[in-house]
Every structure is written in structure tokens, then in C-alpha cells.
Specification:
mainly beta; 9-stranded parallel β-sheet; 27 strands; globular
């Protein structure tokens, strides 16, 4: 069975694979799927033109070999209208997610930190919404840290990114609780980011940074810029470190 039969536009399996400068449109399940160590996914354009907010996952990285230190790098890609923009599975080892542009996805960048390891970093990415969420797409989340097991133990650094809701991003029936960053794991640092909710969000629908119903330790939220009423939600976290955030 080839990758197209399995719903992959591109599937790269092996060590030190590079997937670079491809244009992918209207893939079925995955735009780019990689399995192995030291993967580089750079300079690709991955779009879903058939729907306002697409389905499927644009880039998914998984399955690192234990003891192989070379990180995965996902950089300078343009992703539009996906159910999930960039997904890093817990067994992917260390991953660096840098300078990607993600537009109108239901979930922008998601990392699963169940397995022990070095961690993840998401630096200098831009996540943009300029259309309302599709009616059946669910709540939009720009950055998501989660664990498929009981507890996430990797360190995750989310730094110098921009999340922006532009004119047209909201509708009167937009979900009432969207997330700029939703944390459900330990040891997450959120620093130096700009979070802009834009204007026109309905009622209590302004997006949040933090989490709900969790008690994870190691949360650090410092030096971020919150615009248009973005809320910081850290109730329940174990001794969060908060400082030097600005609110406009």
C-alpha cells in the first residue's frame, strides 16, 4: 500500500529524513508524516482549499529511536485550514518547531509529552485566525500541550510566538472558550509571546492562556503581551511562576 492509499500526501520513514519545499493541497489524512530520528520538515506549503477549516493533520512527527539525540526540526512551513497544523507525538524525542505560519486551523501546534525525554520548543511561530471556526470544528486551540498517559513529563518552551485573531475571526456563535495556549502537562514555559484576541469576540469568548481543571507543576508564564482582553487562567496549577506580563 503506498502513502497515497494510506491518506498521506508524503510519508518519510528513516533516520535524518528531509521533507523540503513541497506544495501540498487537499490531502486526505496527513499532509506530511514522518517516522524516525532527526527529521527536518522545512519550507513546505500545506493547504486545505476545499473547506473553510480543513480536516486532517498537516504535519505529524513520531517514533524516535531511544538514544538517538538528533532532534526533529519543523521550520518555515505555511499551513492553512487543517484540523491540526503540527502534531508531535510523545515518542518523537526532542522537537524544535520554529518560524512556521499556521492559518485557520482548529488546533495549531500540539505536543504530546507523555514519554520522558529532552522536550519541545516552539519559537517564533505565527498562528492566525481570520475566519470564524467552522460549526462542527469545535473549540480552537493555538498551542496545546497534552499527554496520552497519566502525566506529561517533558519540558516544553513556547517563546516569542504570535497568536492573532484578525477581523472576521469571530462570529456571534463562536465557541465561548477558546485557547491561545492550553496546558495539561508539567514543566511548560510560556514567555515573550504576543497574544492578540482582536475585536468582536462574543461575551465571555475571549481566548485564554493556561488551563482548567489541572494541577500540573512547573508552569512559567513571563514577559508575554496580552491584547484585547486575553485572559490568563492558572487556577489549580501547582505553584505557577507569573511575572512581567503586560495587558492592553
Amino acid at each position: 500500500m503506498n502513502s497515497a492509499d494510506a491518506g498521506f500526501a508524503i510519508s518519510a520513514v528513516g533516520i535524518s529524513q528531509t521533507v523540503q519545499n513541497n506544495d501540498i493541497d487537499d490531502y486526505e489524512m496527513y499532509g506530511i508524516e514522518t517516522t524516525g530520528n532527526g527529521t527536518t520538515v522545512v519550507g513546505n506549503t500545506i493547504t486545505q482549499n476545499s473547506t473553510l477549516v480543513g480536516t486532517g493533520t498537516a504535519v505529524i512527527v513520531n517514533s524516535a529511536r531511544p538514544g538517538f539525540a538528533q532532534p526533529a526540526q519543523i521550520a518555515h512551513n505555511l499551513i492553512e485550514r487543517a484540523g491540526l497544523g503540527i502534531s508531535i507525538w510523545s515518542n518523537a524525542g526532542y522537537a524544535s518547531i520554529v518560524s512556521n505560519q499556521v492559518i485557520n486551523t482548529t488546533t495549531g501546534i500540539a505536543v504530546d509529552s507523555q514519554d520522558p525525554g529532552t522536550g519541545f520548543e516552539a519559537i517564533g511561530n505565527t498562528i492566525i485566525y481570520d475566519h470564524p471556526a467552522a460549526g462542527d470544528a469545535g473549540v480552537r486551540v493555538a498551542f496545546l500541550t497534552y499527554s496520552t498517559g497519566n502525566k506529561g513529563v517533558k519540558r516544553t518552551r513556547i517563546a516569542t510566538n504570535t497568536v492573532q485573531y484578525r477581523p472576521g475571526a469571530w462570529s456571534p456563535v463562536s465557541p465561548t472558550r477558546e485557547w491561545m495556549v492550553k496546558v495539561a502537562t508539567d514543566n511548560v514555559t510560556i514567555t515573550g509571546n504576543t497574544f492578540d484576541a482582536g475585536a468582536g469576540h462574543p461575551g465571555d469568548g475571549v481566548p485564554r492562556v493556561g488551563g482548567e481543571g489541572v494541577s500540573n507543576p512547573g508552569l512559567v508564564v513571563t514577559g508575554n503581551h496580552f491584547l484585547h482582553g486575553v485572559k490568563l487562567s492558572t487556577t489549580g496549577f501547582t505553584r505557577p511562576v507569573l511575572g512581567s506580563n503586560t495587558v492592553d
